[in-house]
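The authors assume throughout that readers already know how a fold can be written as discrete tokens. Each protein is reduced to its one-letter sequence and a matching series of backbone shape codes. I therefore recommend that a typical entry be quoted early in the introduction. For illustration, here is how one protein appears when written out as sequence plus structure tokens:
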Amino acid sequence: LEKIRAYRGRGGEVVRQAACRLLARVAAANSWTFKEATGARYLQTVDECARHSNESIRVAAVDALRVLSRTRFKLELSIKCIDNYLAGLKKADETISARRGFALSLGALPPEASAERRAEVLQALSKEIKNENLPGGKDQDDPQTRQYALLSMGRLLFDLPNLSSEELQLIVETLKAALNDYATDRRGDVGSWVREVGLEIVTALLEAQSCNNGSSPGRYPQLADKASTTSLVALVLRQAVEKLDRLLERAFGLLRRLLLKGPSSSADPPALVELAYRRVCHDESYRPDAATSSDRAANLSRPTGDESVAWPPVALTALEAAMKSARGGLEEAGCESAIDLAAAEKMKADRSASIFEALVPLLDVADYRPALVRGLIVSVGGITEYIAKGSKAAVLKYLQGTSDEEEASKRQREVSDELVRILATTSHKDSASDAKRLLAPLFSTIGVLLAQDCFPASSSEALISQALSATRTTRDLSRLRASISVFIGLLRWPGVIRRQAMEVLLQFLGYSFPTVRQATAQALYIRLLEESSDFDLRSSPTHDDADQQHVVPAEQLAEASELVSITPWSTDNEEVLSAALRKMYEAFRIDLPQGGQSMLAPRKTKEATQQPKESEYADLVRENHY
């Protein structure tokens, strides 16, 4: 094939792929003997194809390498391969396709060879998955390389013998980083490719913990304690309540596989990793139960109640009950269907709604609450209609669906405190990736709770403080528009909270963004219609005559409401807007803004006298008239 240059021209890519498959078959033929030089010659072809830009050729080459290295290579040659692939990943000018091939090839080599370079291999894969300190910088930022590196790390997790606690900790930290990969580009949420593989590897590791019981101790890598297991379960739960239905169903199906194993069932964690590999690289349909192999999983059944150092996670009974309570099945995820939906177009929406209804009650468990709330934020406040509808219904049912007022108040307080904590810990800079992804849906979620009277007054002070910080200088339109419902909701509590919220809303009416002005006017008009009496804007309920002037009479409130409705807030006529705004400030007895982005705020002018700067050479020449 190589002599006739069959790899070139039309059909050359197909011939490359076929050649790699032929090499794999020849290498697997035990009756055929190989010279050492023959294996090395075949390796040249495999390495050339592994760096090819065509994904099918790359995968075929790695599959051939896996067979060739495990059946024909000596240990020295396999170690040389590892050194070459690690060197390739360190090159700043290496192509993306070659880096993908190197990352995938590191998981195909024999465990004996990987064990000789275990520290270097694990560090290199971890750096790729975390996207840290890449030699080529942002030019080598590639989600598919991270996906391939994660598949290789999953294979090494079960191939490498006697992983040390430091190595296992590195792997766990890397898996957590993978499940927090929310990278986006013009193709959309490309980080979801990495998160999906991360779910499968994490589930395999968790399944291994359930197998490391009295009947088969130490068969698989052992996590340090149950806290480590619980943190990984929390990350899977988070993906099971996020907005992407593909990951939502995948995560829930994997949880059911992990938690609903009966006494007679079997588990095979390495097979789940191989299933992930075949799903990604060979586009095979994914069913978690297909990873269970009866011949490899013999005597690995976990009797109910057996425990190990790292198993079970916190609230195992509650987790199992949640898995059993789901109304709908997940056929794509390999879970049995409990209902038969007549309308195919409703199947996806009903499945996601049943998942939310099953998992939201786990908010009662403090160890899982932060992860669940963070996941629910992007679902409740997202733009996918059926996901938002199902998650919102489940959350409101959880917060309002109990007849015990004390229990309902406790739930609302815990959820609201967690929402405010997320708002406080998320960067408020427009350029921050977490801010772009979380803040707009977070404001929308809090707005829903405020509108449904599910947000306690005890958290209002912390909320308005963080909301002001998040909106003060931002120019993110989606964040600004989402925050309007929060400030409208905060008007329900008289005092300093209401006054601060009204000041912000009036500033929004003076922003340079027409969509923000229009959305604020609509929301404020609807809110003012709910007031039938005087509107108290006092900072504190006192009988001081000077403070009484901040109480807006009902008649004046009606006039302000009419002004909001008739003013064309989307116009570019600044004179009309300024006149209407001044009347609004006068009606609500609020001083004009002295700063911020409102058009009524004083314009910043350059000071007539500025501190002299250190003269440059050109200025010196000019001053001396040369």
Q: What stands out?
A: The chain is about 60% helix and 0% strand.
